[in-house]
Design goal:
Layout: E1 3-4, E2 7-16, E3 19-26, E4 31-37, H1 40-43, H2 46-60, E5 70-76, E6 79-84, H3 92-99, H4 104-123, E7 126-127, E8 136-138, E9 144-146, E10 153-154, H5 166-171, H6 177-180, H7 187-203, H8 213-222, H9 228-231, H10 240-246, H11 258-287
Length: 294
């Protein structure tokens, strides 16, 4: 059984451009954890090491319930690591892959929890910058944890460094237009990505088709996203406008916060439900010979 410092590695949970995540046992604190080991190339980069320490410190200070707790972080034997709470449940990506499009009420509930985590991070000066279904974990009761703030930057570091790493490749489907053009990054960058995730929850598809950088860059910069209702008729049209505004090309045209996007989604669903109830009442009265109030 492999060991990493005080940790006993028990199995691989997942891997990506920013490293591998393992189920591990912390022998010093007597608990199971999720242990993320960053790529050796990043561990050897002094600039990245400094940024990693700074960003990990900022995220570890967050106390919002939907931000996965960070127990420890640092370097062991030249390898950067993050020790996090082990979440017993799938990622949102896995839930969509297994179950297909979600009911609008469930999708909005999940997105609202993500928004709470992001708003807390934004208040503390941290933009996530990598919101996507694989970075959203679900418990079996649909409680949400947002993970992998590892490439998040403090808001003061406004310029985006777009590099063709594995992490970037996995993020293209959710990347805001300003990130492709190295424009300033702020909380509205996460608003865009969260709107993309809402689209995928409702349709089990990405907002834009294409599987390479040129096609997706063009789409995010210039193309209008597909309407949710055009991709999944069963989802209805209540959330079409919410997704469209959240994915506006110009940050100033989006919702000012992820919480505002989530609130708009809840309001849209409530209005649609009220309209449906009214139509059903009119139909019932007509069928029974009564008069309908209009």
């Amino acid at each position: 059984m492999q060991e990493f410092g005080q940790y006993r590695i028990e199995g691989l949970i997942g891997s990506g451009g920013m490293g591998e995540v393992y189920r591990a046992y912390d022998t010093r604190r007597d608990r199971e954890v999720a242990l993320k080991l960053l790529p050796i190339a990043l561990s050897d980069d002094p600039e990245y090491q400094r940024r990693f320490q700074r960003e990990s410190y900022a995220v570890a200070r967050l106390r919002e319930p939907h931000v996965v707790p960070i127990h420890d972080y640092g370097e062991i034997d030249g390898r950067l690591f993050i020790d996090m709470r082990l979440v017993d449940g799938p990622s949102l990506a896995a839930a969509i892959a297994d179950g297909g499009p979600m009911a609008p009420a469930r999708a909005v509930n999940l997105i609202s929890q993500v928004a709470e985590a992001l708003d807390a991070a934004h208040t503390d000066g941290v933009v996530h910058r990598d919101i996507k279904p694989s970075n959203i974990l679900l418990t079996h009761s649909d409680f949400v944890y947002v993970v992998d703030f590892g490439i998040a930057h403090a808001v003061g570091q406004t310029r985006s460094r777009l590099t063709m790493t594995g992490a970037t490749l996995g993020t293209l489907d959710y990347m805001a237009p300003e990130r492709f053009e190295s424009h300033p990054v702020d909380p509205r960058t996460d608003v865009y990505s969260l709107a993309c995730v809402l689209f995928e929850c409702l349709t089990a598809q990405k907002p834009f088709t294409g599987d390479d950088l040129p096609a997706l860059m063009y789409a995010h910069l210039y193309a209008s996203p597909r309407r949710v209702s055009a991709v999944n008729h069963a989802a209805g049209s209540a959330l079409d406008g919410v997704v469209a505004k959240g994915m506006a090309k110009k940050p100033g045209d989006r919702y000012p916060s992820t919480g505002a996007l989530a609130a708009a989604a809840r309001e849209a669903l409530a209005a649609a439900a009220e309209q449906t109830d009214h139509i059903e009442e009119i139909t019932r009265r007509v069928e029974t010979g009564g008069e309908a109030d209009t």
